[in-house]
Amino acid sequence: MTDALSPAKARIRNLRYISPIWMVPITAALIGLWLVYVSFSNQGPLVVLTMSNAEGIVAGKTMIKARSVEVGMVQTVKLSEDLTHVIITARMAVDTEELLRQDSQWWVVKPRIERQGISGLGTLLSGSYIELLPGKSNKYREKFVVQDTAPVAQPDEKGLRIRLTSEQSRGLNIGDPVMYRGFTVGRVEQSHFSTGSRQMEYQLFITAPYDGLVTSNVRFWMNGGVRFEASAEGMKFETGSLENLIKGGVSFDVPKGWGLGKSAASGQQFTLYADESSSRNRYYERYLDYVLLFNDSVRGLSSGAPVEYRGIRIGTVMEVPFQLGDVELLGRNSGLIPVLIRIEQDRFDEEGGDRALSQLSRDIEQQIRKGLRATLKTGSLLTGALYVDFNSVPDSPASAGYGRFGSYHTIPTVAGGLARMEQQANRLLTKFNELPLEQTLSNLDAMLKESKQSFAAMRELSSNMNKLAAQPGAQQLPAELTKAMQELQKTLRSFSSDSPVYGDLNRSVESLNSLLRELKPAARKVNEKPNSLIFNQIPADDPVPRSAN
Which of 140, 152, 186, 339 could bridge 178 with an S-S bond, Cβ 3.0-4.6 Å? Predict the structure, then answer.
């Protein structure tokens, strides 16, 4: 009975296998780990991009492309800690490590309207994207700087890179064309202003095979623009073609008459001129500086005016007026106006010739002793611009502005142009004033009185001849004498008071008297001011020389 009421004991047995229920979480964990592995294994490298601004860049939407193939996506966009630029993180696609070279180039593609045309229209619907141009370097890199514009040349493209410097305010833009005789042979790669040299500096890329056109003697100038110049050579108006006005850019060529020179080296520096005309002004390395001391007005003479010898240009005017710190403009040199000129030897000697500058100086000294003189001449009546002309004036005194001005040698000068005409007119008027006009008028009056007495005597003689011819004895003269008397009577009758000859002569004498009366005020005015017949009474003001400081 007792055994029937006692509790039953459970039999416990250890399981020898895992319950099938645990397969579910284990399987889920394995699948998760697999997905994580697959996700990480299918992700490309993470790159960091730096930009000046994030215009058109949207996290999760802006793509990264290489040759129009998507190779990455922008993940985050944020400002840098110093707030000076934008930092972008982007996830690249799988197997894109070969694209991330040290010299790879990045830029933003978006709609643009430029002088070269309209680009990036396809991004109006799809949005801006970042273009990647793979480099050729063997070094891997994960941080890059994104440019705002596309590069002009690819890293492996063959060509020549040169530098230009310019003082012009009108500048070039990146991508502007570089042209040779109308053909585009390159582009502007870089453009920036140097605070050290206070000049614009540019880098140009000339593509092969056109890089062989760039030599040491080429000159570069800005395309387009309108140029108006009034100089001693007259007035010039130049404008480029309509295409150059729209595209802009820079052109280059070797000036006419110059040699080609040596081939340019990579990185060689050239000067960028404002226009083609100014690019032809060659810089001559061999020259002599002289000072000319003029007694004439230098109004109309400016820096850059030509210096000529009998029509052949031999130099350039450098500074008007030229003033040294230790030499006064007025006073020490008797009020003469100093002008600095430069005699450029290569203009008239063969370039690289054997004659040295010292020999040229001695030749000029010898010509001065023979009468070489400088004078101011009018280059253009329209503009009034002057230039300096050298010529031989043997009768000119050698002391006219000859010697030294500070540390510079001087060349004698003579008056020229209007000044010489004024001097000649003054000499003529002086001689005219020295004429005895009053005595001449008195003698002329006496001559007129004697002429009237002669006419009266002739009239009396004619009357007597008429009376003689009327006498009876005269009728008996031979026929020849009668005829002669008749002819003489006819001649005498022509000088009577009512004859035309007498009237013309009398009017001529009266006109001469009137002319002499009118000449008396003019003679008095010329005597007081000899140059009043040529020049205005109110003279024009001479130019005010600038200060020496």
Answer: 186
pLDDT band at 44 (very low <50, low <70, confident <90, very high): confident
Contacts of 520 (CB under 8 A, 6+ apart): 437
Residue 331: its pLDDT value, please? 43
Look up residue 45 and give its two tokens.
């490298």
Alpha helices in 42-72 (DSSP H): none
Distance (Å, whole) CA 76 – CA 332: 77
A 10 A CB-CB count for 276 gives: 19
Residue 148 pLDDT: 80
Helical axes 437-470 vs 500-528, angle rounded to 10°: 170
Amino acid 238 reads E
> Angle between the 479-493 and 437-470 helix axes, to the nearest 10 degrees?
140
Phi first, then psi, for residue 265 (nearest 5°) are: -95, 160
- Listed in order, strand segments (DSSP E) in 155-286 are 159-166, 177-180, 183-194, 199-207, 219-222, 226-231, 234-239, 250-253, 269-273
Side-chain-side CA neighbours of 458 within 13 Å: the count stands at 17
Is the pLDDT reported for residue 281 higher than 70? no
Alpha-carbon gap, residue 241 to 226, rounded angstroms: 10
CA torsion sign, 51 to 57 to 62 to 65? negative
Closest CA to 274 of 345, 182, 148, 172: 172
pLDDT of residue 87: 92
Q: What is the DSSP string of 180-212?
A: ETTEEEEEEEEEEEETTTTEEEEEEEEETTGGG
Q: Give the pLDDT confidence of 330-356 residue by residue, as tens digits.
A: 445 567 888 899 888 877 776 555 677
Q: By three-state DSSP, how is residue 39 classified? A: helix
pTM recorded for the entire structure: 0.50
| Residues contacting 524, CB < 8 A, separation 6+ | none
Q: How far is CA 149 from the centre of its chain?
A: 32
> Tens digit of pLDDT for each residue in 472-484?
665 555 566 667 6
Show the tokens assigned to 453.
């007495």
Region for 544 from its dihedrals, namely left if φ exceeds 0, alpha if ψ lies in -120 to 50, beta otherwise = beta
- For residue 88, the surrounding DSSP H or E stretch is strand 86-92
Note the pLDDT of residue 330. Answer: 46
d(CA 243, CA 288): 43
Taking residues 151-174, what's their average pLDDT?
A: 79
Question: Per-domain residue ranges for the chain?
Answer: 46-147, 159-279, 287-416, 434-533
Check if the beta carbon of residue 188 is closer than 8 Å to that of residue 223: no
User: What single-letter amino acid sits at 237?
Assistant: F
Looking at per-residue confidence, does 229 or 277 come out higher? Answer: 277
Confidence of residue 89 (pLDDT cuts 50, 70, 90): very high
pLDDT of residue 502: 65
If you average pLDDT over every residue of the chain, what do you get?
75
399-417: average pLDDT: 74
